[in-house]
Design brief:
Elements lengths: L1 H13 L6 E5 L4 E4 L10 E9 L8 H4 E6 L3 E4 L4 E3 L5 E3 L10 E8 L3 E11 L9 E4 L2 E4 L31 E2 L8 H43 L4 E3 L13 E3 L6 H7 L1
Parallel strand pairs: 1-9, 2-10, 13-14
Antiparallel strand pairs: 2-7, 3-4, 3-8, 4-5, 6-7, 8-9, 9-11, 10-12
Helix pairs in contact: 3-4
């Protein structure tokens, strides 16, 4: 009995087929879709993303393409509603109502081994639209016949069991992602720019006031030095009549402000 059960389980596992991962999203949400077909980047030549109404849209590959990576070095975007990284990760900038039920297919062309695909089906959640948030989704991976999008290499109805994998989708809802590289740097800079400019202006004003006070204090010290020496100008032999506590200089002996400053 145990042997029979084990054999039955083996048959079920080897014939298991993968359906597209159905993911629940919300309007205005930003979604990041990883191309699981290109998880192992070895021998991957090209990656293409397509948005279709059905999984069978070979005749419309060129019209359905939204983004691609050529030679795994040059990312291109065919639709400005999307963005793509050089590793094939797709960014849906903002979920719209028309995306309900749409199928997003990633096709990874590998040298010699053919094309692998990953499929994600979007479902719009009921309720009010949310503010812009980012979520990450890992799609399902299947294997197709050799070829590249737009050429005579149709996608089979059922995936083969060679390299297909069915990740355990425990929940239809996506989990928040911590991808900081998705943050728009320009938007963040615009938020903090007024604060930076205000702090810079306050710093300039404070430095100007400090410089003004230092110059004024030095000037007052020089002026006070020339008036606190108790000197008076006399000529001839009048020095014998001067009080004992008064220093009497003859004409030209009393130091001026510049001399006092140099002596200091």
């Amino acid at each position: 009995m145990l042997v029979l059960s084990t054999f039955s389980f083996f048959i079920w596992s080897s014939t298991r087929t993968c359906q597209g991962a159905e993911v629940t999203v919300q309007i205005n949400q930003t979604i990041v879709l990883a191309c699981s077909a290109a998880n192992n980047s070895e021998n991957v030549e090209h990656i293409g993303w397509y948005r279709c109404r059905t999984a069978d849209c070979e005749s419309k590959w060129d019209n359905s393409r939204i983004a691609r990576v050529e030679r795994m070095r040059e990312p291109f975007v065919d639709n400005t509603d999307f963005d793509i990284y050089v590793n094939g990760t797709l960014v849906i900038k903002r979920i719209k109502a028309v995306d309900d039920g749409k199928i997003f297919i990633c096709k990874a062309k590998r040298n010699l081994t053919g094309v692998e695909t990953s499929t994600t089906i979007l479902k719009i959640a009921k309720g009010k639209p949310v503010t812009t948030t980012t979520a990450s989704v890992q799609p399902v991976t299947t294997t197709a016949a050799p070829g590249i999008p737009g050429r005579s290499s149709p996608l089979p109805d059922t995936p083969t069991s060679l390299s297909s994998s069915c990740p355990d989708i425990q929940s239809s809802s996506v989990s928040p992602s911590s991808r900081k590289e998705d943050l728009d740097f320009e938007t963040a800079f615009k938020k903090v720019a007024p604060l930076i400019f205000s702090l810079t202006a306050l710093l300039v004003i404070a430095v100007t006031i400090i410089i003004y006070l230092v110059v004024k204090i030095k000037k007052n010290k020089r002026h006070g030095y020339s008036h606190n020496h108790g000197c008076r100008f006399e000529g001839g032999d009048d020095n014998q009549h001067a009080p004992e506590d008064t220093i009497v200089f003859k004409l030209g002996d009393c130091p001026n402000e510049e001399d006092g400053a140099e002596e200091l």
